[in-house]
Specification:
Largest sheet: 7 strands, mixed
Strand order of the largest sheet: 8-7-9-10-13-12-11
Radius of gyration: 33 Å
Number of strands: 14
Oligomer: single chain
Structural class: alpha/beta
Number of domains: 3
Helix content: 25-40%
Distance between the termini: 39 Å
Shape: elongated
Strand content: 15-25%
Number of helices: 7
Length: 353
């Protein structure tokens, strides 16, 4: 079971309370009045420990009741935050105060901006009440633009500090790529690498070739039914799904799978180099191309800088987003809690009578 607030599990020692309570139970010894008792010295009534089978069942039910209560509290979401400002500690104070006031968050509490702001906010968005609004105030370049726009259950506004002064142009890095593809997919592959050149800081250039050499870092193979020449070598190979046949690339039978940003890649090391294949090769839309770029850059030794997020606002996408999946176990736990409570009351009443 997935816990939303796992700190509730530290309350498990509470289970010792019903055990202690049952061990303290006493039952008065039944006394009968006798005519000659007046000649005997007065004695205080005695109590005797009684441990009957129904007490053990009741003890078990009470322990399970407390355990179910703790589990329900750990899995149930209790939104408690209102309007909040996520403030970058390094942002200019005067500029930040102006932006916060202009957005209408002057009286809202402020918390430090986490390192991965958007991802962290999505994971902990359950802490905010349904009517809450959030404002992110940050320096330029502190928040990376994701491949796909995030969807939040609350209105979120991002305000980034504009860059002042002249920004140095990034140095150009050339990436020789061997593109061997069918005429049908040639345009899709070239469009992909053209988009790669625009992504990041714009300092990458992908140079197309037909035969690999010592400087080639990537070979794209998208020729179904044909085997690449035996002498071709490159650190990385991108193999289209239609070309990743066992007869052409038998090494892929033992390929491992990895999923990054929603894209599943299969890879295996071979004498040719590391072979990569995916159903996303070649991408057919802009969203898949952006996700593929992020996945590929996260796997490289020196990933390109992410595109900084500009100031923008995200409208609420409703309360049915994936951030509330953690709350699902609490429903059946509530029914279990109710059933155990009724059973405990029945057993307690039966013992008294």
């Amino acid at each position: 079971m997935l816990s939303s607030y796992p700190f509730w599990w530290f309350a498990l020692p509470v289970l010792l309370l019903p055990i202690w309570w049952h061990r303290q139970k006493r039952q008065r010894i039944k006394a009968e009045p006798l005519a000659t008792a007046r000649f005997l010295p007065v004695a205080a009534p005695e109590q005797l420990r009684v441990w009957q089978w129904r007490d053990r069942v009741l003890l078990l039910v009470r322990c399970l009741l407390l355990l179910a209560l703790i589990a329900w509290l750990a899995a149930t979401i209790f939104p408690w935050r209102g309007n909040t400002v996520l403030l970058d500690a390094g942002a200019d104070k005067a500029w930040a105060e102006r932006e916060i006031g202009a957005a209408g968050f002057s009286d809202a509490p402020r918390i430090d901006l986490p390192p991965d702001a958007l991802q962290s906010l999505r994971q902990h968005e359950r802490d905010w009440r349904p009517d809450a609004r959030l404002l992110i105030v940050s320096r330029a370049g502190q928040i990376a633009m994701p491949a796909r726009l995030p969807r939040f259950s609350h209105p979120v506004e991002v305000r980034t500090m504009p860059v002042t002064g002249q920004v140095a142009a990034p140095s150009t890095v050339r990436h020789p790529v061997v593109l061997s593809t069918s005429p049908v997919n040639d345009v899709a592959w070239r469009s992909l690498f053209a988009a790669f050149e625009k992504a990041g800081d714009g300092g990458n250039r992908y140079v197309m070739a037909t035969i690999p050499d010592a400087a080639t870092g990537l070979v794209v193979w998208d020729v179904p039914g044909e085997t690449p020449p035996a002498g071709w070598r490159a650190p990385h190979w991108w193999i289209a799904a239609a070309s990743a046949q066992a007869a052409t690339f038998p090494e892929l039978k033992n390929a491992a799978a990895i999923t990054i940003h929603g894209v599943t890649l299969r890879y295996v090391d071979s004498p040719r180099g590391r072979l990569w294949t995916s159903e996303a090769f070649p991408p057919r839309d802009a969203d898949t191309a952006r996700v593929l770029y992020e996945a590929w850059q996260s796997l490289s030794a020196a990933p390109a800088p992410a595109y900084p997020m500009p100031s923008q606002a995200f409208a609420s996408a409703g309360a049915s987003t994936a951030t509330f999946i953690d709350a699902r176990p609490a429903a059946w736990l509530a029914y279990v809690l109710l059933a155990l409570f009724l059973l405990e009351r029945i057993l307690a009443h039966a013992r008294r009578n």
